[in-house]
Design goal:
The protein is α+β, with helices and mostly antiparallel strands. It contains 9 helices and 14 strands. The longest helix is centred in the C-terminal third of the chain and has 21 residues. The N and C termini lie far apart (44 Å).
Amino acid sequence: MAPFELAEPTSLSEAFSLLDSEGTRPFSGGTALMLMMKAGILRPARLVSLRKLGLEKIEANGALRIGAMTTLRSLETNPQVKKGWPVIARALRTLSNVRVRNVATVGGALAHADPHMDLPPLLAALGANVAVEGKTGRRVMPVEDLYAGYLENVLKRDEIITHVEVPALGKRRAAYLKCTTRSADDWPAVAVAVVVAEKEQGEKEQGDEERIFVSAATDRPTRLASAEAVESLKIEGDLHGSAEYKKQLLRVYLRRAIQEAREARG
């Protein structure tokens, strides 16, 4: 691994200034970044640690506010998350292994823009927004708008994710399913997140309103208007399966996820 400088700013403004130069990368949990550096895919001259910026809080006051430096394990085990957004805690149990979840952060998992990540499609289905800050100010966007393509996000060089806000589930019900080709905690071949909101009384015969997002089979979290829309979806084949194989998996897992969401408690 090539040598690099490690900077540890203690304020957002200091972090923005340090990031605004060539060859510099933000450093949160580092679980993916370190692997890419060891493989020689990335050779940053400077890493800017975000650990001392106070971005690790979890707050639930109607909506759920998750600081970008919150570890995945902290999110998984938080009592407020388990009670109000149990689908998040359930999904995290099979995200890699507990050693990785103890280090990896929410902000890093989102910014990495790997379509095989579990959190992006789930948070997108839940209607979450991500807050981004940089030298020019703050902006908020839906989680799905953070992505431009495979391993590509829309963040400017001096911008970082500061927190994610997830609306209350209310009467909505949610499910997240993934199919792995090896162990249960492996990268998914396909991933499906579904959130179902019941119609008002008297409208149930018209069915449920659904938010469906798929990932791993696409180059970014992708919303489907309905389960039938998978037939026209552009599928990305990779080492986890061919495009044809993944399309068949999606047909099956979409039906399962919608059914599970309708029967879920949250």
